[in-house]
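Example 369.
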Amino acid sequence: MSYRIGVISGDGIGPEIVAEAKKVLDCISRTYGHTFEYEEILMGGCSIDATGVPLTDEAIAQALGCDAVLMGSIGGNTATSPWYKLEPHLRPEAGLLKLRKSLNLFANLRPAYLYEELKEACPLRDDIIGDGFDMMIMRELTGGLYFGARNTKEQDGVLTATDTLTYNENEIRRIAVRGFDIAMKRRKKVTSVDKANVLDSSRLWRKVVEEVAADYPEVTYEHMLVDNCAMQLVKDPKQFDVILTENMFGDILSDEASMVTGSIGMLSSASLNDTRFGLYEPSGGSAPDIAGRGIANPIATVLSAAMMLRYSFDLDSEADAIEAAVKQVLKDGYRTIDIMPQETGRRAAVTQVGTAQMGDLIAERIKKP
Ligand code: IPM
Ligand code: MG
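Predicted structure in complex with magnesium ion:
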């Protein structure tokens, strides 16, 4: 089969990690006889430099013309980069939000999984880790505080900033349905996270999730307040299967979950709409401090490419092959710097490699079953 993949390399480490994901995809295309055509799309700081805006209408049209989009990362150092002196709607992140909204990518899937081989990179105690954990964060991506009306103005001589958090029942229902559908393919448990002791939007969230849950009698579900969830993620991460939550809570909890797995460099993500189209990106940022040094971990991007094969192209065996190759590389003792063990004794037992070498090692291990 032939697929057209939009590629947003972006800023910082973006181009480096995307190059490795393409290397692995090319290996899949050779092994399985597919054709992947790539189309470069500008977004983020590089688009600001080239066009004056973080995402042009042409770039949105280009993305729409592809079967899926693979992205690296966007943005720079918020303290030093000239992009952050621009108006908020002209900054790099505004491009990403505009793309999510224009393509209606309301369902964001962020799997957090502890690899057996990376237990030593996990900051939690052994008795908490136990046999490891495996959860899916389902984050609503096109509503809530990110997209509500906002302004900053002087009221009675005092500067006042306002952000609004709005959800309607349809927006909640469609992400809840996705969450329960995914739970049916996993361990059949949904933890819906909200702040219903304070927020109206959370009370509506709870009501709608309960209605949806009634259609899934096999799925166990519970409600959890977001502050408690933040605590439970480090106290007992094993309890979670699918975490279903709104945009801002999901942003925060997914970073926390990724750190619990050892490194944000391992966490992939998929942003989906009602069609087979998806935007696939690592959950980490552009890491400007290490950009250009060839040391960034490309695994989250490689695993995002695997998610693309699975969710947008229905190529399950190919996705399995990538995931197996990543596991094998870790088993064979290769690590990028962010997932190196801390203890000197254990460091001696593994080999530290750079971004490109990690990509080569994964590609070499791609096998047709
Ligand atoms: C993420 C990022 C984005 C978000 C930023 C870059 C706007 O943190 O994808 O989690 O907050 O959604
Ligand atoms: Mg985030």
